Amino acid sequence: MWESLPYSLLLRVLSHLSAKDICRCGCVCVSWSIAADDELLWRRKFQRDWKVDRSVPIVEGALWKSEYRRLYYEAPVVESEVLLEHSHQVLHVSFSHDGTCFASCSKDGHVKLWSASYPASVTHSRNMRDLSWNYTQFSQFNESDTLLLVSGVHFGTHTASGEIAVFNLKEGFVLQCRVLNKPYDIFGTWYTDHYLLSGRLHFLGHMLSCSAIWLNKAWQESESEKKPIVKQMFKFLNINASSVRTILVANCEQSCSRGNPVPDPCSSQDDDDTDEDSADVDDPLDPREKLLIFTTGSLTYAPHQVGFKRIRPFRFAEPGEPPTLLERLARQQEERRDPPDPFEQSFDVIDHLVDLHGHIIGMGLSPDHRFLYVNSRPWPKDYVIEQPLSPPPIAQEIDIHVIDLATMKEVGNLLRSHRAYTPNDECFFIFLDVSDKYVASGAEDRKGYLWDRHYSVCLAKLPHSDVVNAVAFNPKDPEMLVTASDDFSLKVWRSRAKVRELQLPPRDYHVEKADGDPSKSYDGAGPSASSKGWDTA
C-alpha cells in the first residue's frame, strides 16, 4: 500500500519529516528513493529549516539536497580540541596558506606556531617580552609560508608604539627582521613574499598628523651598502585626530586606470652596472597591480571609513649618490630658517573612500581578493558629530559589510548576529575571516559566529567563556576553523564529516546550534555519510 502512494501525496508526507528521516525513507524502494531526491521537496526543506529567504537562488550548479547536506554536515561547527598553552588572553590566530600550521598571539607576550593536524600541538614558541614587547597582537604568513610576520605593542601605560618581527619558518623559527610600527594598530602586512608594509605617525599640529606607509625588506641586506631595505610608499594627511590603521593589501586581477604609481626615486642606472644588476633593478617588485586598504576617518578619531589606494607595479630601485655632508648641513639650516608648512607638503590622495557610519573593528579579504568584509558597530541614525574627540555612541550589534573591490560598492546582505558591549573609548578589535563558502567572526558575547556566504544565514554559535577576539579558517580545509578568546584558550572546530572521519567519541566534542540550525542537538548520529540519501546528494 505504501509503495503505491501517489507521488504528490508521498512528497507531502516527506515534507513533514526531518532531513535524516527523508534520507532513510529513500532506502525503502525505488519510487520512494525518487521522491526523497525531489528538488522541490529539498528546496522547501532547505528554505524552511535554514531560514533562507525564498528570493535567494541556489548556488550555481548545486542541488538543494547537496546544499542542505553541506550546511549541516560540512560546516565547521563541532568543537574537536581546546588548546590551553597560552597564559593570558588570546588576541589573534592566522593560518598558513598551505593549511599545515597556524599562529596565535596573546597578551602573555608569546607568539606560538601550531601544527594543524589532529590533535593540534605547539611546534615553536617565542616570548616577545624579551624584546621589550608588552604583548603580541597580530600575525600573517607570507605567500610561500616561509616567513611569519608578527605585530606587537611595546611596553608603556599609554604607548601607541609597536613593532613588527619576522620569523624564518624554514630555519627553526629564527628572528630575521624587526621594524618599528606606529601606531601599533596599523598591524602591518605582507606586500610581496619578501617585503612588508609598516606605518609611522608624525604629528603636525592640533588634531593634525601624517601617516607614512613604509615598504621594508624582510631581512637586513649584507651584500652591498647601496642596496635599499626601506622605501616610503605613501604619506596621508590625517585630520580631526584620525589616523591610518589596519592596513591590508589585495591583489587586483584587473588593472585600473585610477590611482597613481608609487614614485620611483631612481629612473636610471650607472653605465658601469652589470647586466644582472640592471635586470634586478628594472624588474618590478611585483608584476601584479595591488590595492592598499586601510581604515581611517574624517569626522572623528574613530575609524569609520575604509580607504583604498591603487598601487601599480614599481621598482625598488637602488638609491642615487647620497648628498655630501655640506649639502645636508645646508639643507638643515634652510629648514630651520623657514620650517615647511604642513599643508604645503606633498601628501598622497586616497583614491576612494567608503564611509560605513560606524566604528570599524575588523576587516578581512575573501580568498580571491574580490570582496572585503568589514566588522563595524554602527552609529545612531542621523548622527551629528560636533566634536572630533567625542564620536557618537556605538551600537551593541556588529554589522558585517561586504564591499566589491571591483566596483567599490557595498553588495550582498548585511550580516548581523554577533554583539559587542564596550563603549567607544574601550572598543577593541574583533577579527573576522572568510573562506570560499563561509564567513566567521568573533564577538563580545562569548561566542564565535559562522555564516554561509551565499545564503547569509547564521549556521552556528561557537561558545567560549569570554570574548572571542579572532577566528581563522584553514585555507586548504574549509571544514576546520580556529577561534581565539579572552578565556586564554584557542578552540578548534571541525565539520561533522571530519569528526566522523577522525572517529572522535561524542563525549569529546560539543556543538551549540544557531537559530537557523535544523538539528536540535548533535549526538554523533546525524545523517550518516554512508547513508544512501547523502551518497546521492
UniProtKB/TrEMBL annotation:
Compositionally biased spans, kind Polar residues: 528-537
N-terminal signal peptide: 1-19
Gene Ontology CC, one term: SCF ubiquitin ligase complex
Protein name per its UniProtKB record: F-box and WD-40 domain protein 5
Residue span, F-box domain: 1-45
Keyword Signal: yes
WD repeat ranges, renumbered to this chain: 83-115, 461-493
Stored Pfam families: F-box-like, WD40
Region described as Disordered: 256-285, 504-537
SUPFAM superfamilies xrefs: F-box domain, WD40 repeat-like
Compositional bias segments (type: Acidic residues): 269-284
UniProt lineage: Eukaryota, Metazoa, Ecdysozoa, Arthropoda, Chelicerata
Keyword tags: Signal, WD repeat
Alphabetical list of PROSITE patterns matching this protein: FBOX, WD_REPEATS_2, WD_REPEATS_REGION
Keyword Signal: yes
Top-level taxon in the UniProt lineage: Eukaryota
BP GO annotations: protein ubiquitination
Biased composition, class Basic and acidic residues, residue ranges: 507-520
InterPro entries (alphabetical): F-box-like_dom_sf, F-box_dom, FBXW5, WD40/YVTN_repeat-like_dom_sf, WD40_repeat_dom_sf, WD40_rpt
